[in-house]
Predict the 3D structure of the following.
Amino acid sequence: MPSIYIHLPWCESKCPYCDFNSHQINAQVSEKRYVDCLLSDLDQDLTKFGCLSFESIFIGGGTPSLFSGKSINHLLNGIRDRVELKDGSEITLEANPGSADAGRFEDYIEAGVNRISIGVQSFNNQLLKVIGRKHSAEEAENAIRIAKSVGFVNFNIDLMFGLPGAQKGDAILDLEYSIKFDPMHISWYQLTLEEKTAFARKPPNLPPHNDICEEFEVGQSILQRNGFAQYEVSAYARNMMKSVHNMNYWEFGDYLGIGAGAHGKISSGSKIVRTEKISRPESYMRAIELAGESRMESEIDASSMAGEYMLNALRLKDGFSVNDYLVRTYNESLDKQFEQNIELACEKGLLKREGDWVKPTRLGYSFLNDLQVIFI
């Protein structure tokens, strides 16, 4: 069953490590105008692709928590009027600590949001300043407490390690402090210097590679001891509370991408189509208002289908089934090149195959980029 991704592209400011489509918010932004455009955008995709039922909604950004509860309610009510949501559908909203207040979080719950992802990144004020975050450690703690107090049981804490200026042990302190808040999910990922970001243009001094690797190993043990099971490269869940929406991405599922710069993937007939919306918010809204849509489409070529699938599936710690690969990629049987690539990865000790099931080994998970390259 497909999902819906909704992009709210505004932030208070652009972080130097961020390569997402985000823009500094200003007083001229009309929440109602943008939400109306989102719903028109959804109408066009529903007409084009014929999707009717969905299992999750993810409102990402940018900083979606800059939008009022009233606007989120308008958005979700509009979606419910148009589509069927599976019972208990996961509806996630990303929030930054600096934009958190009790009234707004309560409004999100009343609107139907049942999972919140809080972009903490670190509880170290010095490190937050270095990576351009506007909130403080105290605001991060407050945001988490507010989320819990208003009724969010399923919440995620985003954390980063390998930050510029970090001392050995800082990442572990952040991780241990996060666990004390009893989240159901932690996203713990290493800072990477992405192209076209301020950090890429002027790279900061990062901690020694060996220190980062050692902290990662220690962090893995801490998470495991506290009941967090790793199921994806940077995702850890308690009580099997995996992110339904993100699992759909990694399992090569379908999703509509709504909003400025949003990407989507839809299986249509016997082909798979990627969609992309205009990235500049004002241009996106004008296109929706004047032409009714801002969608660009491209079909995934058969020759690159295996690579597309494996870039996602190999991120999952439990791997994938061969049958699922065949179904998702419209193949009747494994082609010779794909079989040879699996055999090569097994010979290198990066993959393990047991009957229909293929999964990364510990070595393969440690060198995931090298493993993925085999299939691209």
Remarks:
- The chain has 15 helices and 17 strands.
- The mean pLDDT is 93.
- Residues 3-249 form a domain with the TIM Barrel fold (CATH 3.20.20.70).
- The radius of gyration is 21 Å.
